[in-house]
Fold each of these.
Amino acid sequence: MTTPPVRPRIAEELARGEVIALEPVTLTREMVVGYAREFDPLPFHLDESAARRSLLGGLAASGWQTALFAHKRLIEALPAGLDARLVSIVDLKWKRPVLVGDTISGTATIDDIAPAEGNAARNTLTVGVEMRNQRGEPVLTVTCRYALGGVGSANGGAAA
Amino acid sequence: MTRWFEDVEPGEKFPIGDHRFTAAEIVAFARAYDPQYLHTDAERAAAGPFGGLTASFCHAVVVGHRKMVDALAAEAERLRRAGQEPGVSGPSPGLSRIEIAAPVRPGDTLSYTLTITGKRVSNSLPGWGLLFNRIDAVNQYGEAVYFAEVVGFSKRRDYKMPLGIRVRMVLGRLVGRVRPRRGRKG
């Protein structure tokens, strides 16, 4: 049995201009401090009083942790069977601190989806991501480029 | 850097450390932040674009950040031991770009280097400067894995605060001193 080519299927399921909802996540003290201990052990991510004296004004999540949750929520929202490898990140802005107890959610808007250069089996997905806190204030904006592959693509990954 | 803003020279290059990526940590990280078979399932990944398990690129990038934080802490410690007062690094307002070039496989060791590419006084935060840094990650074969152009706040040693701001800060501190005490009693 032959598998249908992947590109038309992706083009049907993901279209330019589409807005993908990135589901909320609440950052607990345990998550913030646990992540910081492993990947970003700066005083303002670990210690309440140091954080209050810092530019962030309170115990705040590593900006990378916010970015990782945006990436994770996007991966979870993609059609089943697709894989998405990060290719580049452009103009990432950490707009305000994400403090312990904040709930962040957001959107990924598809700026472009096109066959990958030099690889007919894959597509390049460009998304504009915006994460906001529970008050609707932007905390992070970034543009990310992903190489998409998936079921049925010759070079793409999961065997159908 | 842990040097004062005034003491940082654009063009300077610092090796900030190596990291060997094990299969176990690649899978653990991916389960938490990048749950895709490419990074979590060696068997399925064998049929994938890289013919085997690879680390999430997010993983390679945040390990690079950790290396920078550790290098800053080590430099601060060195300065303190030499009887000098280290500078103060603030949070990062963002980065202009990251470009990813090669996969990271279990057992690979990445070497990270930080280069100061530029600096300027902050327009929005009095007393602070901005440092423009580039982080390069290279694997054990000498192949470039990624580079990142990031921005960080760095405190200015020689900054003289205008009188108006100083008065406001002193007043703010006085008010702050009274309020928490009340709070703690209650």
Note: The first helix of chain A runs from residue 6 to 13.
Amino acid sequence: MARLDPVIHPITRLKICAALFRAGATERPVRHEMKFATLRDLIDVSDATLSKQLNHLEAAGYVSRWRDYGVSRNKDVVWVSLTTKGTEAYSEHVAALTEIASEG
Amino acid sequence: MESKQARDALAEIEALPHTTSTGMPNWLMALAAVVTGVAVLAGNQAWQWVVLAAAGIFLALMIGMGIYYARRNVREAPRQDPYAENPTPPWFWWTLATLALMFVARMIEGNLWVGIPVAAAATVTAYLAFAQFNRAQVKRRGPA
């Protein structure tokens, strides 16, 4: 039986993982990444909220972030990718949710 | 966790808008580099204009595709950033630029010694003009 992941469980983090997973911004088969701004717009949160939630996911090794440096800091572009560990954790979490949802 | 909560969570992620875009493939970039290289190496060959015309069309397409892909929000990640791992020192590029400018100046003036001060002045001007971009040049990519 699949188990719920406490790191992904908060809905914002679940949506972050879902947005990255569905857009293919994962490490397999070839690493792809999504713009921070796009992710923010997709899940409809503020920069600060997204950044804070990404910190949690990054600490767990579920996402990776890279910064492309621009001519000034506000021209920087941050790219986010779901790691292999994050992809597995997300898939298992969704499987657990599906099992629970089907029980009711 | 109750089944209703699980259904709500699944509904939330199902409701997310779809983003289906991928970045410009690296092999396409490599192909562009090869075509450009062939065009340059064609030099004074009789068929150089054919190659240059083909390269021109190809590069125009590449620029168009580049703009198209730059607007997309999911891309193939750079596999390696050699500049971050082992940056080429700036003096190398400025020396290269100086030599190139000297070469151009010699072609124009027909005299290398006339070309040197022209090239030096051009190099200093170029350096000052682009100094503001150093932040992007020195460190292009790193952990956020």
Note: Chain B touches chain A through 35 residues (CB under 8 Å).
Amino acid sequence: MHLQTTEIFLIIGLGTFMLLLAPLFVLRYISVYNSFKNKDLEEKLDMTQNFQTQLVQTKMDVAEHTKQSIAADLHDNIGQLLGLTALTLGSVRLDENENTRKKIDDSLELLHKAIKEVRDLTKVVHGGKLVEMGLGHALQEEFDRFKRMSGLKVKIKNNLIDKESASPEKDLIILRLLQEITNNIIKHAFATKIEFYASIENESLQLIIIENGVGFEYQKTKNQNKGFGIYSIHKRVNVLNGNIVFRSKPEAGTKIAITIPYP
Amino acid sequence: MTHIATIIIECLALIASNLWLAKVDGIFWRFTRYYLGVVCATEIFAFYYVKFYHFSNAWIYNLFLICEVGYITFGLYLALKPVHPKPLMLSTISAAVFIVLYILGISENFYKFQSMAIGVQSVIFVLLCHTYFFWLIKHPTPISIKTNPTFWWVSGVLFYYFGSTMYNIFIFRLFKYLPIENIPSISEILVVIMLILNVLLYCIWSYAFLCIYKLRKSSLSLV
């Protein structure tokens, strides 16, 4: 069978055209794939930058909050104790031996209390030192401090005691988060009983705090932007890619459940 | 006429390379300028050889094949190097296949164009180009396609050798089955196809040279 010249022309022309189309499709595919890869990389970069910005912001918030906490502690605890000591020492009369001894003993007791408060305060300020021993240890210190200071009935179940520090930065944010929550409970909850549970399951840290205080309407407080504390707590949990659930009703106490990917 | 057009296209590519690659460092781009010089010289010499001596110029193109395959293999090796784990192995296999087929071909008849060697080599080049693109996709770092000279150089190679497959099939296998009276007109269309492929190749390569020139200029302005 002999092909006509026009038929051969067509075969060669169309064949070459089709063969030229193939690389065109290959290049188009690579171009589209590459632009997706570019977009993906940009998103990752944005997320990293966003995380770093939030981390810096949170550190600044934490520093500010710590300063406020120190000021409050100095004023409410140490200031009161030292003031009382000064008053007691001021009322000492050297001619009344019996009374003098009692007053000096009282003053000594108050000074010891003040020294203990200063030590506790130092621990709060040096959160970085605390987390060096591991998150479990730092949380335990904070639970114990809360127990001593609040005078509430406290139940603690801490399964993290033996865990080593995984990420000091993350641990410090978790510790500050707990301090923020405990400070809010002392200030606003008027609770008489509080429970702390800390554990790690399936590479996620679970922190549960249950108190029997006055409670609050979570959504309302959040919507009205009343609670800077709640905003700050949420922000810290978000920085850690975690999740926080508040369950509270007026006069029915509050349960706070925090889940954070860990380590 | 088509031969003259091909020579003009090749000369324009040579001018573009000398214009945009003149001060570029890097052995391959310097080598490109020399290669395009050899391409132009070969094409002009082959054209006048036929015109004056009325003999087949296939032996000239047979000699030129060594330069062409050497240059393209070297370029593909350098393109594959940053993205593929074994670029040297692939390039060596490619070169070895060509050397074997070429020696077999010229030992049979040096004055006959080595269509078998270049036909098989075209398929290998197409495979190497696809390997480059595949590994480029797999590579975690995206590239700026619009300004990447290596990408465009390989694209030119892919268009030229993929597009010339039909040409090679006809030259190597189907030509002898054509009726004698059809051969001149079929030859004419094959020459036109080669002209189109040359235009594509040298336009894409010239764009690659322009990318290099722009990159060099922008990097100098940053100093």
Note: Chain A touches chain B at residues 2-3, 5, 8-9, 12-13, 15-16, 19-20, 22-23, 26-27, 30-31, 33-35, 37-38, 41 (CB under 8 Å).
